[in-house]
Specification:
Strand order of the largest sheet: 1-2-3
Helix content: 55-70%
Largest sheet: 3 strands, antiparallel
Order of helices and strands: HEEEHHHHHHHHHHHH
Number of helices: 13
Distance between the termini: 98 Å
Structural class: mainly alpha
């Protein structure tokens, strides 16, 4: 493994990094598969590698008018309006009007949710942009039936849903998905899209589907043999690059959701309170100016107008900060959680590969043991077959002795030994068969069940083990390719995300500076005008004119009297 010293493991424009994948090398015929078109997408020309994504090339063909528009210069998707509508059950919902070029489509929030969840299943190795979160239970409890009609919430959703659609439209892979094009088509029923390919072919478990084409109707049989590792399983040989990515993402998420968002909400709250205080103060000053006359009334009125300008500009500053800072910040905190899940998926694919490899090694060890047992049994069989030939003559002599045709001096039919042997054998035979009928029957049945031919059992186990090894070899092969494709695609999308994040953060900081600069300019102009009117008021009659110099000390003609000089003058006056 290489040592990555860069605290940010994601690539940039000048030096894109590539993942180091802990997988065995394969031949050219088993390279990571290219990113295919989904079944519902019209076929495109053959792709060539492009910008780090396996099998991606510049766009050359278009499947529909919306596809062509999205890949034109200056293409922009707008959420033009939010309309209150009623479904067939009489429930009120908000439909968002999506404008793509000259065509409009109306989609409700739940349809945006289903689009995103479908893209997550169709593209498990890509960073799918987030959508605004649902209303919390607290919002529903406070606003009850009018929570869905809250103007602030609707405006926020319009902006964030528009950002969601435009991020998909600018993605090098997601922008080619025909399901997304159909979502933008107002003449297409979204319910039909959900119940037709490729959405209807989305797998229930993406770990058991090819990541380059999860909607494959006929996946390789080896996917059925792949394990389903948990998210907490440890890797024996982890990839240091993705370990760095996980650590960096955790830190990034902690900075955003744990610190920056909290401070931003607190700052927005204080700006809001400041705005309300200025609204009250401006109204009081304007009312007070009506009770005065002359230049004082004009000056107080102009001061109240300056305070009103501060209230208006602060309200505008709050709106601009919400759109240009708070919402993008929340969106990137959602991105951080999405990247975490993406890295978990890659972690599971790596664990799947290691578990499959380990299972294959164990099966091969079992197979080796069976082969050694088979070789030992064969050796014993050969030894026994060779010894049976040498034992033929003794066997015949034994048979002769048992038949009684041998020498009479051994055991003859009339000898005393023979008679005693016969007399002793008869009672023994009767004793063995007299009282054990039931027990003998049970023992015979159990012996019949247990008396399995070891050679047949061993060969059956060998056949099953060979079949398991064949399945695991196929599973390991596809797991290797899946890990290579998953790592390469995720790394390419992380590099793209890093470039996007840098550009967005730059724009957020510029917007923050521009918003405060505009707020300062408006308030400076208003308060300069108020100052001009205030200076027109005549000074207080008891106040010295500003052009008369102050008295100076006798010992210091260029400055005011010192305390010591004042003390001396007071003492002299007493004398």
């Amino acid at each position: 493994m290489a040592d990555f010293g860069d605290p940010n493991p994601f690539g940039d424009n000048e030096n894109e990094q590539h993942a180091i994948i802990d997988a065995p090398p394969v031949d050219e015929a088993s390279e990571a598969p290219a990113t295919p078109a989904k079944p519902a997408s019209p076929p495109t020309q053959q792709r060539q590698p492009f910008r780090g994504y396996p099998g991606l090339s510049p766009k050359t063909g278009f499947c529909c008018a919306r596809d062509e528009y999205l890949h034109s210069d200056g293409a922009e998707i707008l959420i033009a309006d939010a309309l209150k509508m009623t479904d067939h059950t009489g429930k009120i919902y908000i439909a968002y009007v999506i404008r793509t070029g000259n065509s409009d489509a109306r989609r409700r929030y739940s349809e945006f949710e289903s689009l995103r969840s479908g893209l997550v299943k169709l593209y498990p190795t890509l960073i799918i942009p987030p959508i605004p979160s649902k209303q919390s239970l607290g919002d529903y409890a406070i606003k009850q039936s009018r929570a869905k009609e809250d103007a602030t919430m609707i405006s926020r959703r319009k902006r964030m849903l528009q950002a969601f659609l435009n991020r998909i439209a600018r993605h090098p892979i997601l922008s080619n998905e025909h399901t997304f094009h159909r979502f933008l088509d107002g003449e297409v029923s979204w319910s039909e899209v959900l119940h037709s390919p490729p959405m209807s072919l989305a797998p229930k478990n993406v770990l058991h589907a090819p990541p380059h084409n999860p909607t494959d109707a006929n996946p390789h049989p080896g996917y059925a043999a792949l394990p389903s590792p948990s998210t907490s399983v440890s890797l024996r040989h982890p990839d240091q690059r993705f370990m760095d990515s996980e650590a960096f993402t955790d830190k990034f998420a902690s900075h955003l959701s744990g610190t920056m968002e909290k401070v931003t909400r607190r700052t927005m709250k204080r700006w809001s309170d400041y705005s309300q205080d200025n609204a009250e103060l401006g109204a009081i000053l304007n009312g007070f100016s009506l009770s005065e006359t002359g230049q004082l009334a004009v000056a107080v009125e102009r001061t109240g107008q300056a305070v009103d300008t501060t209230y208006v500009s602060t309200t505008q500053l709050l709106q601009d900060l919400e759109q240009s800072w708070a919402e993008p910040l929340h969106e990137y905190s959602q991105f951080a959680e999405i990247i975490k899940k993406l890295l978990v998926f890659r972690h599971q694919k790596h664990a799947q590969y290691e578990m499959t490899k380990n299972a294959l090694e164990n099966k091969r060890e079992v197979m080796d043991e069976f082969e050694r047992s088979e070789a030992e049994a064969q050796r014993l069989q050969n030894a026994l077959s060779g010894s049976s030939i040498n034992a033929t003559a003794p066997g015949r002599r034994g048979a002769t002795l048992l038949s009684g045709e041998g020498d009479e001096d051994i055991i003859g039919p009339s000898s005393p030994n023979a008679q005693s042997a016969t007399s002793h054998s008869m009672p023994m035979r009767r004793k063995s068969t007299s009282g054990g009928g039931l027990l003998s029957a049970i023992s015979y049945s159990i012996q019949g069940m247990m008396d399995v031919d070891p050679e047949t059992a061993r060969r059956n186990n060998m056949s099953k083990t060979k079949e398991s090894i064949s399945q695991l070899e196929d599973a390991l092969h596809i797991s290797t390719q899946d890990l290579k494709y998953t790592s390469a695609t995720i790394q390419a999308d992380l590099d793209r995300f890093q470039r996007q994040k840098v550009a967005d953060m730059r724009e957020m900081c510029i917007s923050m500076a521009r918003i405060h600069k505009e707020w300062c300019r408006k308030n400076l102009d208003a308060w300069e005008e108020a100052r001009a009117e205030i200076l027109k008021i005549q000074p207080h009659p008891n106040r010295q004119p500003e052009d008369i110099p102050l008295p100076t000390s006798p010992t210091s003609p260029n400055g005011p009297s010192s305390p010591s000089a004042k003390t001396i003058t007071a003492n002299e006056s007493k004398k």
